[in-house]
Amino acid sequence: MQYKQGALSNITILDLTRVLAGPYCTMILADMGANVIKIEIPKKGDDTRQYGPFKNGESMYYANVNRSKKSITLNLKSEEGRKIFLEMVKKADVVVENYRPGVMDKLGVGYDVINKVNDRIVYVAISGFGSYGPYSDRPGYDIIAQAMGGLMAYTGWPETGPTRSGNAMGDVLGGMNGAIGILAALNGRNVTGKGQRVDISLVDGIAAALENGIVRYEATGKVPERTGNRYSTLYPYDSFEAKDGQYVLGCGNQKLWEIFAKLAGMEELITDERYIDGPKRLEHFEELREKINDWSKNYLVEDVVKLILDAGVPAAPIYDMEKLVKDEHIAKAREMFVPLKHPVIGDMHVIGDAVKLMGTKNGVRWPAPSLGEHNSEVYRELLGFDGDKLKELEDNGVI
Amino acid sequence: MQYKQGALSNITILDLTRVLAGPYCTMILADMGANVIKIEIPKKGDDTRQYGPFKNGESMYYANVNRSKKSITLNLKSEEGRKIFLEMVKKADVVVENYRPGVMDKLGVGYDVINKVNDRIVYVAISGFGSYGPYSDRPGYDIIAQAMGGLMAYTGWPETGPTRSGNAMGDVLGGMNGAIGILAALNGRNVTGKGQRVDISLVDGIAAALENGIVRYEATGKVPERTGNRYSTLYPYDSFEAKDGQYVLGCGNQKLWEIFAKLAGMEELITDERYIDGPKRLEHFEELREKINDWSKNYLVEDVVKLILDAGVPAAPIYDMEKLVKDEHIAKAREMFVPLKHPVIGDMHVIGDAVKLMGTKNGVRWPAPSLGEHNSEVYRELLGFDGDKLKELEDNGVI
To answer: Nearest residue on chain A to B6, judged by CA atoms?
Structure first.
């Protein structure tokens, strides 16, 4: 059964977020049908409207993560703007913001005020260090979260030192945690009858992503070494060399290793004391890596990966952006790069959705809005404002 | 208001997942109060019960990501096991599994069968490449997803080549996407009255995490270069050297750069043509990096970070696991490493929750279960089985 509605089509979100972590959160929810009303500063808007890359003078950065949302303008620093915002809070389910802790209170629209106006509101704040704890006042960019959350120290090579994830992983995890928080609290409203506050920190998100790192550290008392692409518990599970580039190979257990060794003409290694089991292969991983490279350097990446996969052993090419956007599985079948016609930019692609809801409508709904594009629609629908009222608010710099 | 209930305390999840991505997903939901019933193979259980590190013979790996869940045993390959599972499906809200696509169908408990038994079920499948598309049959370990999803090519240094994230980021993102999918589909049930299937792929999760990578590639036609710790659009936003290690500094705009330059005794650089604006500083980043290193090498990491932060410029130490677990903000105030007494392991820590629900009860509820620990409780509650029935099922190898 395929429904016309989105899974979140009964949810209205007032979205005060800017830049990346917050907009990434509401992007996920907007594509699932939530009515995401992005509230931007009059005349200026989200900072990322000024971020490159640009096409026809329009930011592709903004266009990517703000599709499927509505844009209205509102000056929260004006008393009338504040009142209008609180009127909208009465009609909404969720408020989400990623200001530094304290800014919403200073604007007179902190959680206590919002909760008094509508106690069913789910209020989500996303910040670098969260709204409580000794560092909560510190500025928290992505690189700060990756550094203090422990991911950088864990990533990279023995000779390079700590290495950050090439994407803004702190922002991405923060945005995803925001989405989880909003959805969990919406369900919680069915349990308690009330909304609640949800506090998201980019640093928490990075730390939580370390998964079993903490138990390995606790068991050994040793800080994990940086091992490049190999895993520290078994081998061969690493990147290797082919004629035209690198590929990865994952012999996750003894059986897979034995299949691979036969395939690669290394059958004699299976009974060789130096490679007899996982720990032994790990001990001699440098020699083994060289042997595997010597074998696979005779093949193109495409061919060696096919050969290994056909034998039933996990392997993959290492895709760069170019290969990724052309791939028949990732780009085409899984729709991870969605073609979109933006009214100013023209034809472009935006990042696709990783959560595939197979029953309700899900996916990019419309291009990112121009600044205040939905003022008339949203203010009329939610608050009944007519054209004269909107003109007056505009003249007074409120919207 | 602090409620005694968890936000998901009205939700029962039948959890067939093993290893990391699936269990990470249900860990998040169990800590929020969901009734997560982990269904394990009799006598054997989740593979990770055999994964190190061990303490007192018990897996700390399993103990970390399976706290707050119940464990029951059930042999889905037996006809009676299959029937019992489908009886439980009638009483549940969610089924989640991370087998290879097709396995559930082969077991006779695929989505079509489950949906016929209970059309309100949310069914989430997590796999390497997803359940459709040309590569859906391929095995999908974490390293495969990091390689093909584009993250490795994007991470690392000009001289190292593609670099994987030190944690199992493919599994973590897959698990988080699973949680988002479950929660969104539960809300969708309020919209449509029916459950639905949700399809999660580790590769999709990695690709979606590349955020604006695709628009940068589309705008320039250039595959992004690996830039180590610096960002490719502004400078100084990178890691630097102190007397006893590295730290990160993020001058996100011109104002922050000017404050920093004055602080570091480089005031003359502010008007120097070579460093006059973002693009110029980026062009000369190597010289600027050296100047900044020369300055900060006179200080300890702790002192230079404090100095920079006090001036209002974003900076942070690069934490390894040891510093992380001792930190007063991350470990203590934000509770990212939770002390837990496990009946066999004894005192240990588990990873904390990144989503802080401030109203409903949230957090680690109890230690990971022993195999089948909750057989009696769960089978009695859900299906009314008595002791004799359980004994019979056990004797027949069904549980």
So the answer is: A188
